[in-house]
Amino acid sequence: MRGIITGASRGLGLALTRALSGRGWQLAVDARGAPGLERAVAGLAGVVAVAGDIADPDHRRRLVDAVGEPIDLLVNNASVLGPSPLPPLARYSVRELRSVYEANVFAPLALVQLSLPHFAPGARIVNLVSDAAFEAYERWGGYGSSKAALAQITAVLGTEHPGLRVYAVDPGDMCTQMQQEAFPGEDISDRPPPEESVPGLLTLIEGCLPSGLYRVNELVAASA
Question: Which fold has domain 2-223?
Answer without folding.
Answer: Rossmann fold (3.40.50)
